[in-house]
Specification:
The protein has 139 residues and is an alpha+beta fold. Helix content is 15%, strand content 40%. It contains 2 helices and 8 strands.
């Protein structure tokens, strides 16, 4: 349920359903939703673009919300055996970034993007995700 919520974070999710019929594990997403709401306005104030591969159920995919010197990245590992993937980021070539893991299964890290603006993301298992806040440390 949390992964299903995460897949719609940058698309302004709306849910209309009878909550009393949900299984108990559906309520585990409540903390992720509460944390997301603290960042929601800043995420949607940015320019949101896709990153990674087109979602297929078997890829590494995601979305990037671009701000001025900072933004957000939602990285998704679908059903595949790769625990790491290199994703190209928009407008961030030759930058030193700090990525702070906000929710999901990823960890905070720093990366040098190089001329192609790529960064290596790691997620521990299939159908895992992480929402990161990033900021440019050096150009």
């Amino acid at each position: 349920y949390e992964y299903a919520f995460a897949a719609t974070m940058m698309a302004q999710p709306l849910a209309w359903f009878e909550a009393s019929s949900l299984p108990e594990e559906a309520f585990e997403a409540a903390m992720a939703i509460k944390t997301y709401r603290q960042h929601m306005a800043r995420i949607h104030a940015g320019h949101i673009l896709p990153i990674g591969d087109e979602p297929s159920g078997f890829s590494w995919t995601g979305l990037q919300s671009m701000g001025d010197g900072e933004g957000y990245i939602a990285a998704y590992r679908e059903s595949n055996a790769q625990n790491k993937a290199q994703l190209a980021l928009w407008g961030l070539a030759n930058r030193h970034l700090h990525l702070d893991a906000i929710i999901g299964q990823g960890k905070s890290f720093e990366c040098e993007t190089g001329t192609l603006g790529t960064c290596i993301f790691a997620l521990p298992e299939p159908f895992s995700y992480c929402l990161y806040h990033y900021r440019v440390l050096c150009e």
